């Protein structure tokens, strides 16, 4: 949300939509959005379908009222801050939410009465995929807390539920309704609609004698042979796979366009190579870079040293030849990383991620699945890249970085080396996503689970491979 005024405009629109859906009748329910260090909150006791932008409260994070709505003439009541506000604060504080929605939909109420449990559970329903960190085969669990006479008295039990259920984006209140939050208003609204779908399905399925919390029996499965091109047994095996302990991602062609290096990073490094070397030539960092390049050249039989230490022009010529050959040596990648670092600092470089990447990273983080990067670019360059994306700094969702110091990406040993650093019990606990078939093959030989990623602009995959193919990271954990 860009501005407080935009939030003031948007909340009445959403309240009207929710009213039309039957979720907030009789002035019930509430809504709040965060804009920087400001919270915009819908008032209490106002017909949701008749709310106006000027009816909104604006508060700071601590709950101090900064803007009070003007009183409307009778028969309207004087402005009153919603008793939901302390509960909204908990979602903002604990989950870093950007928007929190509260509704009284009849199906949310009925969902709390399907059993005496303090949990609502559902699995293998399509809309589960709309819940952060969940997929079709996930067991979606929503905690249920007991209702109280006043809304504000729910604060303590709602906070406890949020902390006890880190994978949930909602809390049900028995015989009352539901609180749903998301990283922004779009995310919160989407999840509210998905949860409502699950609650509605659960109530209707119960009337058919179907328990939404239990996986369906194997009805209508393809035969072992003759259907699904003979791949049905493999598909069922994949579907039963538990979530990985760690996800490892390639960068180009997987989380960012294939053109990132060719059209953005490489041209920048080439254009700033000489000026970077001249400006930093006497620094320990650049001398270390030059020394590594010189040793690499010596090993390749192409000396940089001559009768003395290399000069700037000799290094420039050598590095340009390496870049022309698309070399992926550690020495070259380290120097490039130092050049790119200055570009990121100057605001001249920024990485565009595919739209599904940040939601996937956030979802895995919410589920406590560690995510790592394995790229031919140096670890420094990787960190700088993910600190400067079109979605902002996303490094909080990444647990570590691996580069060619772990070994070439097309060799099995490299993946075995990385596995030793991940602290997993089995190679099958690691799931690797890449657009390069040779990398997928090497990881699979090392025992990792693998998915090949197809993105716009990627090179076509060779026929005959046996790896799973996805087009979005939202589908990575589905199998």
From TrEMBL:
GO molecular function: acireductone synthase activity; magnesium ion binding; methylthioribulose 1-phosphate dehydratase activity; zinc ion binding
GO cellular component terms, semicolon-separated: cytoplasm
Residues reported to bind Zn(2+): 102, 104, 176
InterPro entries to which the protein is assigned, alphabetical: Aldolase_II/adducin_N, Aldolase_II/adducin_N_sf, Enolase-ppase_E1, HAD-like_sf, HAD_sf, MethylthioRu-1-P_deHdtase_MtnB, Salvage_MtnB_euk
Biological process annotations from GO: L-methionine salvage from methylthioadenosine
Pathway terms, separated by semicolons: Amino-acid biosynthesis; L-methionine biosynthesis via salvage pathway; L-methionine from S-methyl-5-thio-alpha-D-ribose 1-phosphate: step 2/6
Protein name: Probable methylthioribulose-1-phosphate dehydratase
Organism of this sequence: Symbiochloris irregularis
